[in-house]
Amino acid sequence: MQASPLANFQATVEQLETSGSQLDGIPVDLEESIRFAGARLTQAAGVLLRLPQEVIAQAIILFTRFWIGPEGGSLAEFGAAHISAGSLYLAAKLSAFPKSARSIVNVYAFLDTIPSTYADLEQLWRENNPEEYYVSPGTYERRRSTLFNMEKQILKVLGFQLQVTLPYTLAITYLQALSAFDDPGATDLAKRTFAHLNSALLSPQLLLLTHQPPTLATAAIYLAAKETNVKLPGVDWWTIFDTDREELGFLVVGLLSVETFATAEKAKWADRKVPLTVEEVNAEMDRRQSENAGE
């Protein structure tokens, strides 16, 4: 961990090369699908719980960090849905917007009823109040116990290193420093910048674990300015924010690739549910083995 208050935990090369899941035989493509779906699940649950995006982002980062490296959690042992719930519960507890175990359990129980991972949730959200979703007393007690256990497991795997510095505030500061708010398109520029930072949370390249907030904010501004035709200083302004051209280019490509990855995942899973429990992962592994045996 770097000393700077703007520095986040960064994954090492060794942690990026393998994971606890891969060591337990989980294919890389399945792990990526589950990690992506789990991050989306965390986002959806956070929205339903009316949590600020900053809290949701912290939860997604904790969720993602849990799985990386050979010492990270394995999908053969922990369900991604449980770790998602534990991460959101923990992030909210550490914020000014804590949520009760009952609210967390109810919302995740509601989301579990949705027939496919990539279903359109907006109508379901309008017609239901997930926080009041009914869970029987026995089921609630079991799920609350699981939630508390997952919280402990997350703390253990992360070594209680929960510091998360987000790039959102930095992005606003940088836009002000660049006098971008003097442009008529400033509102669209800010919206697109934040949209790219939110996309980075779902990045298959784990951008928020491999790059620090200043460079992420800089790349999001650069890309958003191109998309909204807002003119920024003609000089290499990104160098002022400690970002070189090579890193900027890598991050721009990474941010742009999230939509492509999401589209491919939606097509891949179609109307099926991405396996987010240990039992579902085992069933998917058995299905793949049967398919391979039949070839």
Based on the model shown, name its key terms.
Cyclin-L2, cyclin-dependent protein serine/threonine kinase regulator activity, Cyclin A, domain 1, mainly alpha, 295 residues, Cyclin-like_sf, Cyclin/Ssn8, globular
Q: Name the structural class.
A: mainly alpha
Amount of helix? 55-70%
What is the succession of H and E elements?
HHHHHHHHHHHHHH
Could you say which overall geometry the principal axes of the C-alpha atoms support?
globular
Query: Which strand-content bin applies to the residues?
Result: under 5%
How many β-strand stretches? 0
Question: Largest beta sheet, briefly?
Answer: none
**N- to C-terminal separation?**
48 Å
- Any idea what the radius of gyration is? 20 Å
CATH topology of the largest domain: Cyclin A, domain 1
Q: Would you state the CATH class of the largest domain? A: Mainly Alpha
User: Total domains, how many?
Assistant: 2
Number of helices: 14
Low-confidence stretches: none
CATH architecture of the largest domain: Orthogonal Bundle
State mean pLDDT (0 to 100 scale).
Answer: 90
The name of the CATH superfamily of the largest domain reads Cyclin-like
InterPro entries: Cyclin-like_sf, Cyclin/Ssn8
GO biological process, one term: regulation of transcription by RNA polymerase II
Organism: Aaosphaeria arxii CBS 175.79
Protein name: Cyclin-L2
How would you describe what is shown here?
The chain is mainly alpha-helical and 295 residues long. It has 2 domains: 18-163, Cyclin A, domain 1 (Orthogonal Bundle); 168-265, Cyclin-like (Cyclin A, domain 1, Orthogonal Bundle), CATH 1.10.472.10. Helix content is 63%, strand content 0%. The protein has helices at 13-17, 20-23, 28-48, 53-67, 80-93, 101-112, 122-127, 137-157, 168-177, 186-200, 207-210, 213-228, 245-269, 278-294. The radius of gyration is 20 Å and the shape is globular. The relative contact order is 0.14. The model has no long low-confidence stretch (mean pLDDT 90). This is Cyclin-L2. GO terms for molecular function: cyclin-dependent protein serine/threonine kinase regulator activity.
